[in-house]
Structures are given as structure tokens and as C-alpha cells.
Amino acid sequence: MNKHALITGVTGQDGAYLAKLLLDKGYRVYGLVARRSSDTSWRLRELGIANDIEYIEGDLADACSIQRAVIKSRPDEVYNLGAQSFVGSSWDQPVTTGVVDGLGVTHVLEAIRQFSPESRFYQASTSEMFGLIQAERQDESTPFYPRSPYGVAKLYGHWITVNYRESFGLHASSGILFNHESPLRGIEFVTRKVTDAVARIKLGKQKELRLGNIDAKRDWGYAGDYVEAMWLMLQQDKADDYVVATGQTSTVRDMCSLAFEQVGLNYQDHVVIDPRYFRPAEVDVLLGNPAKAKRQLGWSARTTLAELIAMMVEADLRRVSKE
Question: Which stretches make up the NAD(P)-binding domain (predicted)?
């Protein structure tokens, strides 16, 4: 029989790529979706899988709906990707972020413990937990120092996963993912903000791009690569935590330069520094060390930043030209 997988956040970037990966492997995929007035399934349609997923209505903030989802899907694997995932919004919605990204993890783990203890669980942790970095390259042993409500909430989710693994013997793993992008990334994230602006400027629909700290450094990879690491974690005999990253870092300035070069433009002619886009507490550098993931999972990033940005610019040029 095909394995069953339950994905929270199935309509997000990672959820969509992961759902496609699992469907291609023959899984029966259930997706938890919250009721929203706006269309949230466009990413699934982009990948051609919107009709291949069995949807269950629920919300990470509501424990009862999570319990029903686990009972209905009878999952072999549960991937908790649902979150308020934009760092900037976490300053405006700190309580919502704490409930969804922190308490919501407990709701999923408790539902598994009570109703499906043999299910394997994946928690989407984040490099934002490192925040004010305590080591030049961050790995699984680097101390955490989150610098946003998002990072703090995710740290709770990370440690409650460890706690349930050690206290109840659940096969519960966390992937500490560094920045990972794609053409399916939301427009509020800096990579898509840049590539969308590049397309609009090239096509004469926009003149400038306003950004904050363009000297911030990030370890950027491709989301399509990173969901493979998620799946590999749940195929291991023993649950564990893994840093998932490229091991290379670039500035936002570098990323802008690559994006504008794709259309024959110089970023310096179009990028405007706007103090309104600086964070209350900046995270200046994030650089992951994925050695453990490579050693134990056999995983490493395949897509370079240049290839990723080229992919995103091309997709945004096609989209903007049709508007």
C-alpha cells in the first residue's frame, strides 16, 4: 500500500515542492489547509498537482482540527511546514506568530502522540534561530540566539520537537533550514521582491527597487533541493536534527547584482536604500554547515545562487509580461 503523508502548510512554497516530491514517489498526500478568503492554491496549480492532493480543513492554532486531520489521514509521515513564515510580519503579529509557529507544533506532536504514535514527524526549523550568530559557520551544535518573534517562536517549536522525541520516543526530526527560495516564493521575501522588481523595471512597469540592509549576508539555496532533505530525514532509522544549507554566503547586494545582470541592467541604477525596511534587530550574517546532512543523509545542495536567481528572474519576466 502507498504511504500516507500529511503536510501542514501544503499551499506554501515548501509544501508545494514537497507534495510534488511525495506524489512522484507514490505517496497518498493529505494537505492541511486553513479557510482563507483569498486563493492560496496557486503554487499547487503551478506544479500541476492541485487535483492530486486530498485536502483537510484545519488550523495549527486549533488543536481539535489537528487531531481530526491526523485521525483522517492515518499518516506514515507528518511534515509540519505551516507557519507565519515572514520575519518582518512577526514584529507586527508577535502573538499570532507565537501561537502558530510555536504552540501549533505542540498541537501536531500531541495529536501524533495520542492518535498515531508510529507516524514519523518533520518540524520545519529555521536558521533564524541562530540570529546573533555564536559561530562563524552554524551547525547543529551552535547555540541559538533568535532576533525576532519569528525566530523565538520557531525555537520553541524546535525544542518541543526534541522534547517529544526524548520524552515519548517519537520519530521526530527537525530540519534547520537556511534561506531557500524559488519562483514559488512569496513576493514579501527579499529574493522574490528583487526578481519581481527586475522584471517590472526591465518591462518598463517600475523604475526603482527600495530595500533595507543590502549588506546582510545569507546562505541561499533552492527550495526544490531542500524538500529532498526533509524526506530523507524521515527515512532514517533514528530521528535527529540537521542543518540544511549550501555552506556558502552572499550579500543581498550580490543577489541584486546577479538578478539585474540577468536582464542587462546595473543594480546601482535602480536600488534605493530605504530605512523603513531595516529590521528592529538585524541578523547580519547566516552561514550554514551542512556536513552532517551530507554525511548521514547523503544530501547536498545542487543549485547555485546564480542558477536560482536566473530561474526566478525568468519566471517573473513571464508572469509580469502577462499582466
Answer: 6-312
* Beta carbons of 277 and 188 less than 8 angstroms apart: no
Would you report the helix, strand and coil content of the chain in percent, each value rounded to 5?
Answer: 45, 15, 40
Phi, then psi, of 212 in degrees rounded to 5: -95, -115
β-strands 217-218, 77-80 pairing: unpaired
Q: What are the φ and ψ backbone dihedral angles of 244, each rounded to 5 degrees?
A: -120, 115
Report how far apart the first and last C-alpha atoms of the chain are (Å, whole number).
44
Annotate 67-129 with DSSP letters as a single string: HHHHHHH--SEEEE--S---HHHHHH-HHHHHIIIIIHHHHHHHHHHHH-TT-EEEEEEEGGG
Give the span between the Cα atoms of 68 and 108, in whole angstroms. Answer: 11
Q: With H, G, I as helix, E, B as strand and everything else as coil, classify residue 4.
A: strand
- In eight-state DSSP terms, residue 235 is T
DSSP-derived secondary structure letter, 138:
B
At residue 202, the pLDDT reads 97
Query: What CA–CA distance (Å, rounded) separates 179 from 159?
Result: 20
Query: What's phi and psi for 56, nearest 5 deg?
Result: -125, 125
How far is residue 147's CA from residue 196's CA, in Å, rounded to a whole number? 27
Model pLDDT for residues 74-87, shown as the tens digit of each residue: 999 999 999 887 67
- Tell me how crowded residue 134 is: count the other CB atoms within 10 A of its CB: 11
Q: List the catalytic residues.
A: 126, 128, 150
Helix (H) or strand (E) holding 252: helix 252-261
Across all residues in the chain, what is the average pLDDT? 95
Q: Taking Cα atoms as reference points, which of 305, 321, 290, 207 lies closest to residue 253? A: 305
Q: What's the CA gap between 160 and 252, in Å, rounded?
A: 33
Count CA atoms within 13 Å of residue 311 on its CB side.
Answer: 15
DSSP H or E run through 243 = strand 241-244
Which cell is 106 given? 505542540
Query: What nine digits make up the cell of 285?
Result: 550574517
Give the pairing type, strands 4-8 and 221-222.
unpaired
